[in-house]
Amino acid sequence: MTHTIMMIGYGAMGREVHRLLPEGVVLGCIIEHPAACEALQRELGDDIAVVSSVAACRVVPALVLECAGQPGLRAHGADVLRQGWSLAVISVGALADPALYAELCRAAEQGSSRFEVLAGAVAGMDGLAAAREGGLDTVTYEARKAPRSWQGSHADTLIALDRVTEPAVFFEGSAGEAALLFPANANVAATVALAGVGMEATTVRLVVDPHTTRNTHRIVATGRFGEFAIELSGYPLEANPKTSTLAALSVVRACRRLVTPALI
Ligand SMILES: NC(=O)C1=CN([C@@H]2O[C@H](COP(=O)(O)OP(=O)(O)OC[C@H]3O[C@@H](n4cnc5c(N)ncnc54)[C@H](O)[C@@H]3O)[C@@H](O)[C@H]2O)C=CC1
Ligand SMILES: O=C([O-])CC(=O)C(=O)O
Questions:
Q1: How many whole angstroms from 217 Cα to the centroid of ligand 2?
Q2: Alpha helices by DSSP H, 24-118
Q3: In CA terms, which of 80, 90, 134, 230 is 20 to 30 Å from 194?
Q4: Which among 90, 116, 93, 115 has a CA at the least distance from the CA of 17?
Q5: What 8-state DSSP symbol labels residue 92?
Q6: Do 186 and 158 contact (CB within 8 A), yes or no?
């Protein structure tokens, strides 16, 4: 049996996910910016429809993968859910906006559908969400990336990225603030918050490190379960140094779950 999926956004991550789709999963439709549709349709040929809205999509996807960035989730997420289609979300930071979160929940109720928050570039979200059931005391999250990975973000206004010679913390605040101020770089802050103690209570530190080529994520949690510290040092995608390879792989895993009887 073949499962047809749809993708919102076909940038660095979308292309990597497409390349690694498991056997039995095919990409049937892509939603992209209107300006990008024609060239992308030419590039991909007729087997994949490239459209600019949910309404124009002629396939009924088994799963919709949002790989479009926070504005893409805002633009199309609710329409997908109202259609009754399952949505896997990678631009999780957009959910730090309570109005969007509520809109997506309403749309899911209307369409009898659901959206899944993907773990993305980090690990341990299963353990954190389980620990929450017993009560969590503190959760902190630190992201450490090279200057080129922060370039073009809000970090440019906080620190001279091209002049740092030692690791430097340029942002400390809540997960909600981080996720919305750094839409292409701090989605994980919102993921950790949603799995744990929420957008306000999750403490976030963002670090620029001129000595690293990795995207490193460190999560420390304490609670009734005990405590854990997880550090994940990921390779950035070549096509976009802001984005970790593992984030794309977590989208591939969501597709794998369509074709395996045992869910892991
Ligand atoms: N949860 C996580 O761990 C992570 C999440 N992300 C999220 O994934 C997003 C995608 O990452 P990349 O592929 O590396 O970014 P990218 O910038 O290479 O690709 C984004 C694609 O989405 C398209 N797009 C933008 N707005 C759209 C809209 N309104 N409708 C349809 N398509 C639209 C763009 O044209 C582009 O092709 C990031 O912006 C970020 O929000 C990235 C890394 C980690
Ligand atoms: O891919 C990463 O390392 C994390 C990232 O960009 C995000 O949280 O938005």
A1: 9
A2: 34-44, 70-82, 98-111
A3: 80
A4: 90
A5: G
A6: no
Q: Which of 29, 260, 13 is nearest to 118 (CA)?
A: 13
Ligand nearest, relative to CA of residue 250: 1
Mean pLDDT of 3-16: 98
237 CA: nearest ligand 2 atom: 1
Reported as a pLDDT band with limits 50, 70 and 90, residue 260 is: very high
Tens digit of each residue's pLDDT (9 = 90 or more) over 44-75: 999 999 999 999 999 999 999 999 999 999 99
Q: What percent of the chain has pLDDT over 70?
A: 100
Q: Is 240 annotated as a binding residue?
A: no
- Does 217 qualify as catalytic in the annotation? yes
Contact 8, 67 (CB under 8 A): yes
Is residue 175 within 8 Å of 117, Cβ to Cβ?
no
Which atom number of ligand 1 is nearest to the Cα of residue 74? 29
Burial class (CB in 10 A: 0-12, 13-18, 19+), 168: middle
Instruction: Judge residue 198's burial from the number of C-beta atoms within 10 Å of its C-beta, 0-12 exposed, 13-18 middle, 19 or more buried.
Output: middle
